[in-house]
Amino acid sequence: VQLVESGGGSVQAGGSLKLSCVASASISSWCEKDWYRQTPGKERELVSTIRKDGSTTYADSVKGRFAISRDDAKNAWYLQMNSLTIDDTGVYYCAACGTAYQGQGTQVTVS
Question: Torsion angle of alpha carbons 63, 58, 38, 12, nearest 10°?
Answer without folding.
Answer: -30
